């Protein structure tokens, strides 16, 4: 069964100094991917709880 996401809020802080170096960018990408996967997991858990009610 597909999951419908009605609202998604993403907050990003941009630091120009970190964007200038490539090593900092790759670390930030890892953190971003982890945050995205955690938020998707939370959305799935919320949907499961709604269906249980």
Describe the structure.
Helix content is 68%, strand content 0%. The chain has helices at residues 16-20, 22-52. The radius of gyration is 16 Å and the shape is elongated. The mean pLDDT is 79. The chain starts with 15 loop residues before the first helix and ends with a helix. It has a domain at 22-52. With 53 residues, it is an all-alpha fold.
Number of strands: 0
Fraction in beta strands: under 5%
Intertermini distance: 17 Å
Unreliable runs, pLDDT <50, ≥5 residues? none
Our Rg estimate from Cα atoms comes to: 16 Å
> Could you state the order of secondary-structure elements as H and E?
HH
How does the major sheet shape up? none
Helix content: 55-70%
Cα shape: elongated
Count up the helices.
2
Mean pLDDT: 79
Q: Structural class per helix/strand content?
A: mainly alpha
Pfam families: DUF5908 (PF19265)
InterPro entries: DUF5908 (IPR045459)
Secondary structure elements and pairings:
Blueprint: H1 16-20, H2 22-52
Salient structural properties:
single chain; 53 residues; mainly alpha; 2 helices; 68% helix; DUF5908
Concise summary:
The chain is mainly alpha-helical. Helix content is 68%, strand content 0%.
């Amino acid at each position: 069964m597909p999951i419908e996401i009605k609202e998604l809020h993403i907050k990003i802080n941009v630091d120009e100094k970190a964007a200038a170096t490539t090593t900092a960018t790759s670390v930030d990408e890892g953190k971003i991917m982890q945050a995205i996967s955690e938020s998707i997991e939370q959305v799935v858990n919320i949907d499961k709880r709604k269906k249980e009610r």
